[in-house]
Specification:
It is built from ten helices and seven strands. Strands 3-2-1-4-5-6-7 form a seven-stranded parallel sheet, with helices on both faces. α4 links the parallel β4 and β5. α1 crosses α6.
Length: 294
């Protein structure tokens, strides 16, 4: 007999990068389940606005996932306002696209800091809280790019492979602790991050609400691996068994590379401008932090 889904009513959930896209949709889905939600975002005003729009006692707080002090302050504020943390969803991430050789060092550093170091920092801080209570759930939003490679998103793929590996290893380390780990691997989702990019052939681009529903299910069941859409699990498993030449042909038939290498730059302009500002701001802040340690 299948286990009854865990109730999420009253659970305290913190979501990074929660002001828009998958983070916002997940917050809405969890509020509908009775959870108490806090969203953290580098864009503080947007986080506060989103929290007000979502209602349900949601709180919006400032968060720079690359800064340990900022992350600690975020989680402390969550617990002060909502109660002991039950779930951390590491959702914040960026995806600049373009040929690897043209990628600036600043872009690469910022991607690694947000997409990977942010997950490491958040997971450690959450575990400090979970381990003393013998319960909790860390959910890491990776990507199908964490199971495969694609042209023009080389460093992004590297960060997502790292998040998948981190999640797999952390799960092993926490067996028997009462703490769950989930890694979520969607194909490109209809968010600003994926703007200007085409659907994979034969596959409709998921909506943020589709990912949110899968996250809710993972929290209710304790599932470790979550693919969105679910059938991508079979594709990943099958291609892992095939010779590389054939597996790459399957990827080509689905239009994996073409999806990324031929973007609509006009449709993507708003997102590219926003992450360019994020990269510039991150470099400036990182430089200031470095001076403080000298």
């Amino acid at each position: 007999m299948a286990k009854a889904p865990r109730s999420l009513a009253g659970k305290v959930v913190a979501i990074t990068g929660g002001a828009r896209g998958i983070g916002r949709a997940t917050a809405a889905a969890l509020i509908a389940q009775g959870a108490r939600v806090a969203i953290g975002d580098i864009e503080v005003q947007l986080a506060e606005q989103t929290a007000q729009e979502l209602a349900g006692g949601t709180t919006g707080l400032p968060l720079d996932v690359t800064d340990c002090e900022s992350f600690e302050s975020f989680l402390k504020a969550v617990e002060d306002q909502l109660g002991p943390l039950d779930v951390l969803i590491n959702n914040a991430g960026i995806m600049p696209i373009g040929p690897f050789i043209d990628e600036s060092d600043a872009t690469a550093r910022t991607m690694v800091d947000i997409n990977l170091h942010g997950v490491i920092i958040g997971s450690k801080l959450a575990l400090q809280r979970f381990l003393v209570r013998g319960q909790g759930h860390v959910i890491n939003i990776a990507s199908i790019a964490g199971k495969a490679g694609a042209a023009h998103v080389v460093t992004y793929c590297a960060t997502k492979h790292a998040v998948v590996g981190l999640s797999e290893a952390l799960r092993q380390e926490l067996i028997g602790s009462g703490i769950d780990v989930t890694v979520v691997m969607p194909v490109g989702v209809n968010t600003e991050l994926y703007s200007g990019l085409r659907d994979l052939r034969g596959m409709k681009t998921p909506e943020p609400e589709d990912v949110a529903a899968s996250i809710v299910e993972a929290l209710q069941t304790g599932r470790f691996e979550v693919f969105v859409p679910r059938r991508m699990k079979a594709v990943v498993r099958l291609t892992a068994l095939l010779p590389r030449r054939i597996a790459e042909a399957v990827g080509h038939a689905m239009g994996g590379n073409e999806t990324i290498t031929h973007p609509d730059h006009g449709a993507r302009a708003g997102y590219e401008a926003r992450i360019a500002a994020t990269i510039g701001g991150h470099e400036a802040t990182t430089g200031e932090r470095a001076k403080e340690t000298v």
